[in-house]
C-alpha cells in the first residue's frame, strides 16, 4: 500500500502559489521584526519554518520577495478601499468610510508598521520610493473622486481644490497612522479618526457623522 493512502486520504504537496503566499507573509513578519533594510534570507526562512534554500527555490532574489510582501500590504490601502466604497452611494458616507479604513486597527497593525518601515527605507531605495509614490497618488485620486462626486451632487461645498484637500487627507492618515503604531499614549484610532473628520468637515461643509 502506498504511503499516504493508509487512511484513504491523500496529502499532496502544497501548491507553489500557496507556498509563495506563505513566504510573503513570513517576509512581512521578518520585516516588522528586523526592519526592511536589515532583513535577511535566513530570517525569512526562520519565520516560514523552511531552509534558506527552500526560500530561494521560490524567490531567487530576496528583493523580489520583499517587494511582493510590500505590495500585499499596500493593497489594503487602495484596492480594497475602492471596492468597499463602491457599494456606498452617499458621498458623505463614502468619505467617512474611507477615512476610517485608512487608519491602523491598532498599534500592532502589521500593514501600517510595514508602510512605516518602507517610508524609512524609501530615501535609500528607489524601488521602495516608487511604490510609496504610486500608493500616495492612488489614494489622493481616490479621495478626489469622492470629493468631486459630493460637489456635483450638492453634498459638499469645498473650501479649496479637490487636489489640495485630498492630499491633506492622505497626509493626515499617514501622520496619525504613524503615531498610533508608535504607541502615542493619548492618541488612539478613535481620536485620530475624529481629528481627520474634523478637518474634513471644515473643508467640505458637511457634518460627516462618524
UniProtKB/TrEMBL annotation:
Domain HTH tetR-type: 17-77
Signal peptide: none
InterPro entries reported for this sequence: Homeodomain-like_sf, HTH-type_TetR-like_transc_reg, HTH_TetR, Tet_transcr_reg_TetR-rel_C_sf
Record PROSITE patterns: HTH_TETR_2
UniProt DNA-binding residue ranges: 40-59
One Pfam family of this chain: TetR_N
Keyword line: DNA-binding, Transcription, Transcription regulation
Superkingdom of origin organism: Bacteria
Ranges in a coiled coil: none
Protein name listed in UniProt: TetR family transcriptional regulator
Source organism per UniProt: Paractinoplanes lichenicola
Amino acid at each position: 500500500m502506498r504511503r499516504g493512502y493508509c487512511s484513504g486520504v491523500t496529502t499532496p504537496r502544497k501548491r507553489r502559489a500557496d507556498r509563495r503566499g506563505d513566504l510573503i507573509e513570513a517576509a512581512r513578519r521578518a520585516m516588522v521584526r528586523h526592519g526592511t533594510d536589515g532583513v535577511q534570507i535566513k530570517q525569512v526562512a526562520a519565520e516560514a519554518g523552511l531552509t534558506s534554500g527552500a526560500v530561494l527555490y521560490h524567490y531567487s532574489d530576496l528583493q523580489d520577495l520583499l517587494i511582493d510582501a510590500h505590495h500585499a500590504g499596500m493593497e489594503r490601502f487602495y484596492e480594497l478601499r475602492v471596492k468597499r466604497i463602491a457599494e456606498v452611494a452617499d458621498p458623505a458616507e463614502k468619505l467617512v468610510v474611507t477615512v476610517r479604513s485608512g487608519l491602523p486597527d491598532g498599534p500592532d497593525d502589521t500593514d501600517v508598521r510595514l508602510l512605516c518601515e518602507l517610508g524609512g527605507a524609501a530615501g535609500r531605495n528607489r524601488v521602495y520610493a516608487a511604490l510609496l509614490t504610486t500608493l500616495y497618488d492612488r489614494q489622493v485620486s481616490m479621495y478626489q473622486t469622492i470629493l468631486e462626486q459630493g460637489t456635483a451632487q450638492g453634498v459638499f461645498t469645498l473650501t479649496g481644490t479637490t487636489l489640495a484637500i485630498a492630499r491633506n487627507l492622505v497626509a493626515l492618515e499617514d501622520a496619525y497612522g504613524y503615531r498610533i503604531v508608535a504607541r502615542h499614549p493619548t492618541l488612539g484610532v478613535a481620536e485620530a479618526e475624529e481629528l481627520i473628520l474634523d478637518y474634513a468637515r471644515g473643508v467640505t461643509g458637511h457634518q460627516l457623522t462618524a
